[in-house]
Amino acid sequence: MTATHAAPSGFPHNLVLAFQQGLRWFAKGLLALALIMLAGLLAVMTAIAGLVIAAFALLIRMSGSKTESVQTYDVREDGEAITLEARRTPRGWTVE
Fold first, then answer.
1. Are 82 and 73 in contact (CB under 8 A)?
2. Between the CA of residue 66 and those of 55, 58, 59, what are the distances in Å?
């Protein structure tokens, strides 16, 4: 024969179950808040990294040479047009 037992009931048992359920909800809430904080921190870190990269690019751009490379071309006095020769090199096109 099998004996069946009724679920325990009463004040102390219900209080312990309620307390355990409350702790579970509290733990889930803390985990959710931790995930939200982690996502926000990751977003802020990504934004800071982008700003650092942009600032470094501006620093490189501003620290270039102060003199501009001025190219001079031969001008013929007889009014004849100048023909430039261009050739392909491994680093791009070169005009001679």
1. yes
2. 19, 15, 14
